[in-house]
Write a structure and sequence with these properties.
alpha+beta; Alpha-Beta Plaits; 4-stranded antiparallel β-sheet; 3 helices; 4 strands; globular
């Protein structure tokens, strides 16, 4: 089963909250990272099957854009990330996220 990573970067907290909520509800994905990119830019990363991540990211973009004052700055999907990328970047499953897989 090919895995993927999906990332959405938004301007403001309401947009990233709406995007994260929509993503985990739209597909069988696990939220693996949330953080501040810079200033008011926030990002959220999910992992799961390639097809599930694609659906979830589309739902997250729509929800982030529809949040009051929300703006999705960028998004990206990485299908089948190599092990060295997963080990270095904060996108691996952790003890905290593992129960939600």
């Amino acid at each position: 089963m090919p895995m993927a990573v999906g990332v959405i970067e938004t301007l403001g907290f309401p947009a990233v909250l709406a995007a994260a909520d929509a993503m985990v509800k739209a597909g069988r994905v696990t939220l693996v990272y949330f953080g501040q990119a810079e200033s008011a830019r926030l990002l959220v990363a999910i992992r799961g099957n390639v097809s599930e991540v694609q659906v979830a990211v589309e739902a997250g973009i729509a929800a982030g854009e529809s949040a009051y004052g929300g703006e999705v700055i960028t998004h990206y999907i990485v299908p089948n990330p190599p092990e060295n990328v997963v080990a270095i970047l904060p996108i691996d499953y952790t003890e905290a996220s593992a129960p939600f897989r």
